[in-house]
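Continuing the series of single-chain predictions for the mutant panel. This is the parent chain; the variants come on the following pages.
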Amino acid sequence: MSDKEQTSGNTDLENAPAGYYSSHDNDVHDVAEDERPSHDSLGKIYTGGDNDEYIYIGRQKFLKSDLYQAFGGTLNPGLAPAPVHKFANPAPLGLSAFALTTFVLSMFNARAQGITIPNVIVGCAMFYGGLVQLIAGIWEIALENTFGGTALCSYGGFWLSFAAIYIPWFGILEAYEGNESDLNNALGFYLLGWAIFTFGLTVCTMKSTVMFFLLFFLLSLTFLLLSIGHFAEKLGVTRAGGVLGVVVAFIAWYNAYAGVATKQNSYVLARPFPLPSTERVIF
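Parent structure:
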């Protein structure tokens, strides 16, 4: 059997379902010893079969029709086999929780309507952006989506920790009372850490779709601007981060809609636009 190398963005996979779990889990096979690619090629993706109907990923082969591609509506950043478990897609729930909470906080950061007290975000951050998103992330892990689980659980934790800052019981703001400079520096490091983490996730979406990539890329810039705003104590930079955060919220809603809207329930579908696929090896 002759194999030829394919990238994850290959147009030969255009018939693979985008964001829907396959019903052919029993067609997943271990690759026979004589069919396996060489050890040096195990990190790549190959096609095989008389009509290239099989895809080789590592030491397993799958029917091409059983794989689904990168899709923001499922938080799946690349070509992957269908999960074993049969659950509903939790990504739209997690994305919606993230989007709404980000929207509310970003409107405050942008000082929309002159608001200066952010405490209304506490309930939203605790229960929707925090708890609900965390549950959606655990759901993603059950569906074997490592990226989706990592992202949703992490940002669920972010919102819970952010809400804790404004809850008097934790005593966080009280500890910095009378020392505004220390508080700004502490928040700057807090947000900088999230910017670094988000940039790491952004790198993992470079083989996905345009809106999927933009979500994490612009979110990393949002965290960075908010971090700089606290370090420099510049309201203008913080407001810029707030405006960008509003854009991020709408992109998250778009990806959530992409995961919910189907031909069966809507006349308006979100069409994914794949990013150009170019192989790059850093290390």
